[in-house]
Every structure is written in structure tokens, then in C-alpha cells.
Amino acid sequence: MECALKLVDAQATRALGGRLARDWLALPAAHTRPLLLLRGDLGAGKTCLVQGLATALGIDEPITSPTFALAQHYQGDHGALVHLDLYRLEQAAAADELLAQEEEAALELGALLAVEWPERLSLVPRPCWQLQLTLLDPQNPEAGRQADLIT
Asked: What is the pTM of this model?
């Protein structure tokens, strides 16, 4: 299913994250739940969306981009979250290896796995939901974003 949304501000971006987390939690745990692949330029709102995921999962600690740590694990009242950022990994093999490690950890935790910069991977993992965030006006981030979701 494909869907396009206009997100007028950061609050709308976080709200979309919350909706995605609730949809993900509603999937049967017996089936393999999808990863969430987040695409978009720097400043497009990927981490903001992950903050919305975290809120819906009952995570009350601050969510920041794991650009330097590469991965962060969070546990909330309603579920767990693994937040992965592949931006600094230039080699696809390194990105693939890190994803495999974090995917295993996410499965053990029953966690939603959100991956920023999945274009660093050698192939698109399945099953996945893909979300492209695009600033409507790159000169003015306050103008909002376009979210294109493929589930």
C-alpha cells in the first residue's frame, strides 16, 4: 500500500510516527513484523518521526539521532525500539553487518526496528515499511514535509 501525506510541522511528523508504531503493535507477534526504513535528507524529520514512535511505545527518555553511537535501544511500557542510523557507514558490507546484528537484537526484544539511511545497505530487507520524508521547501524547514509511505 502506498500513501502520501503532507506533514505541516514537527508535531504532525511525530504523530505519524505514533500512528506507525500503533499499526506495528497491532500486527500479530507470531508473524515477522516489518522493519521501518526511513529515507530523507539531513533535517527531513527522520529522528522527529522516531520520537513519535517512541512516545507511542511508552518510552519516556529523550530520543536523539544515533549518528555517532550507530544504534540505540529503548524499552517502553508498550514495547521496545531499536533505532539504527547508517549515515556514517560508507561500505555496504559494514551497514549490512550492523543491520544483521541489530535485527537479531530487535527480534530478541520484540522491538520495532527503525533504520535511518537504509540506502547504505546493499539490498532492501524484507519485510519492511519504507518512508520517504522530503522537505517541501529546503530553504524553509518550517514549510512542512511530504511523507511517502510504502507498506
From this structure: 0.92
Tens digit of each residue's pLDDT (9 = 90 or more) over 51-63: 999 999 999 999 9
pLDDT tens digits, 83-120? 999 999 999 999 999 999 999 999 999 999 999 999 99
Distances (CA, A) of 40 to 30, 58, 94, 108, 133: 31, 25, 21, 28, 5
Location of C-alpha cell 505519524: 16
Residue (of 44, 39, 87) closest to 67 by Cα position: 87
How many C-beta atoms surround the C-beta of residue 74 within 10 A? 22
Q: Return the CATH number at 47.
A: 3.40.50.300
Q: How many residues does the chain have?
A: 151
List pLDDT tens digits, range 32-43.
Answer: 889 999 999 988
Tell me which residue range forms the domain holding 13: 2-150
Cell output for 148:
511517502
How many domains are contained in the chain?
1
The rounded distance, in Å, linking the Cα atoms of 94 and 78 is: 31
Provide the 8-state DSSP code for 119: G
